[in-house]
Amino acid sequence: MPRDNRMSRSLHALIHLDRHVKRATSEALAKMLCTNPVVVRRMMSGLRDKGYLVSEKGHGGGWELSTSLRDITLFDVYQAIGSPALFSIGPAAEPSPCLVEHAVDARLDQALNEAEALLLQRFSQITVADIADDYLQKMAHLGLNPETLPGCSE
């Protein structure tokens, strides 16, 4: 099963919008993220709907931050992309009369629910600015100019 990378891509785009470009079109972001502009528009629309971005159509338009990265948590981004399933494992999809399966599913559900609650709590403690700061520290540690984007195509 392929991973859902919308959160990672959203965070990537938000940091670029904050640190490198004031405004970017869906096409420019799609090129940077190696995806289709339609995918970018769908992904970014949730962030716009939550008030973290504004968008403008037409010539000179694009996506732009409307709030500080310090005011956006990973939990906020997670919710903006539709709160996708966090784990690809879980109980059986179809109900079964087997009591062994009932016991397995009950314990799996309990453990996964506890893990999800912990993860979402942690998401609410990390801001997108924290990640952007990590990026700047890595650039400084490598002696690279933060204005250059090694590995990123814009």
Instruction: Supply the number of helical segments.
Output: 6
- Into which percent range does the helicity of residues fall? 40-55%
How many structural domains in the coordinates?
A: 1
Mean pLDDT over all positions: 91
In the CATH hierarchy, the third-tier topology is known as Arc Repressor Mutant, subunit A
Structure summary, number of beta strands: 3
Distance N to C terminus: 29 Å
| Gyration radius over CA | 19 Å
State the name of the first-level CATH class: Mainly Alpha
Runs in which pLDDT lies below 50 for 5 or more consecutive residues are none
Strand content: 5-15%
What string gives the helices and strands in order?
A: HEHHEEHHH
CATH architecture identity:
Orthogonal Bundle
Oligomeric state = single chain
Largest sheet: 3 strands, antiparallel
Shape: elongated
Please give a handful of descriptors for the protein shown.
6 helices, single chain, 154 residues, elongated, Arc Repressor Mutant, subunit A, mainly alpha
Describe the protein.
The longest helix has 25 residues, at 99-123. The chain contains 6 helices and 3 strands; from the N terminus they run αβααββααα. The model has no long low-confidence stretch (mean pLDDT 91). By secondary structure, it is mainly alpha-helical. 53% of the residues lie in helices and 6% in strands.
